[in-house]
Amino acid sequence: MENERSRSSSGGPMGMINDFFRQPPKGSLLSQLDNYFMQSTPMRGFPVDKSETDRYFIVSAMLPGVNKEKIDIKVIGDDLVINVKETKTEGTQKLPSGKRTVYLPTHVAKKNMKATYKDGILKIKFPKKSGMEIKIDEAE
Question: Hey, what domains does the chain have and what are their CATH numbers?
Answer without folding.
Answer: 2-40 (no CATH), 48-127 (2.60.40.790)
